[in-house]
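Long-time lurker. I teach an intro course on protein structure, and each term I like to show students one example going from raw sequence to a predicted 3D structure in token notation. This year I'd like something fresh instead of my usual example. Would anyone be willing to generate the tokens for the chain below so I can use it in lecture? Attribution to the forum is fine with me.
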Amino acid sequence: MTPKRYLSEKKTAKQTISISPELKAGIERICQRKQREDPGDDSYKSISSFYTSIMENMLQFLESGNEIEDLYKYPNKNVKDFFDNFSFKGFTPAYEIFLESNRYTSLDLKSISFFLLSVRKFYLKDLNPRDLNDLKKMFQKIQKYFIRKNITRNFKFTIKTQDGEKNFQGIFEFSSYFKNFTFENAKFNALLFGFMGAKLNKTRFSEDGTYIRMEVKTTELFFNPKSYRIKRMKLAEQNLKKLINFKLILSDQKFYTWSKLSIDKDIMISFNDFSELESLLEKMALVSRGNKSIVDLNLKRLQFFEKLHWIKINNNEEHSFSIIIPEDKNQNEIEYMFRILKRFSNIVEIGHNNYYLE
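-- Reply from a regular --
Happy to contribute to a lecture. Here you go:
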């Protein structure tokens, strides 16, 4: 606790110090700016008040066991407050497991566009996009926040310019202790770059997946203060597609490729041994007559075969369906499916390859 004598409101002692003209001018500028922004803050009502406030706060900071170097580790309050509003506390290892299945899944832009536009608005509040010093200062504030939160091991942004060219290139580097967490942050930043008006050109992951390097270049949108929401969403989608590609998927685990292929209705799943399929049906309790915990078992069985892309359900209530796999090449699959369905219901044909259960 700071002794009361340091914080006495009765100012009688005087201290003369020598400072450079540049420092004096800088102090005057920040006092004037803070007075305009918050006229009620007594800390900036005069140069003397500013000096006193700085010294009192610094004294408390040092007496709490901190060092002057620690000042550079603390995030900007505005940055902290903004991101904390969109954050939650959780266990990163548990979150990492959750992210594994979501690794190559695109994000729903409609659901997160408000957040991305809010981030863009927050960044541009005190930023001149044509001033590289402003850009560097803004990124330093964000960097402090993420590093202080132990979210990242490395968080770096390098700006590269060329003489005579308005647009500039940037290299964003991010690493964490978990590969899926790193990939999810890469997806978010790819979208954010798009909303800011920057195009993603190249990406490179480390072999263990915990580090990513992203090369971006500004477009006309970056310097335009207008929203242009549709254009920014389109650029964000292009960035995300560049990041989530089959070159990465094919070098990763097999189930990522299968999950992507499963979206295509022209692709069907078959089995070398139907005993494996029988075992799967048993685990899902779809070949049991007495299972009362599952509502409408007939529909659930049809939904299972629809997931394999063997059939298409036409009406859930009527249990009507059409066979969509080529009949001449997949006779074994069709016969097996009918054998399962006939164990629990009658199959009525209502047209070529069209049936319902009763």
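Some talking points for your students: The longest helix spans residues 179-196. The chain has 14 helices and eight strands.
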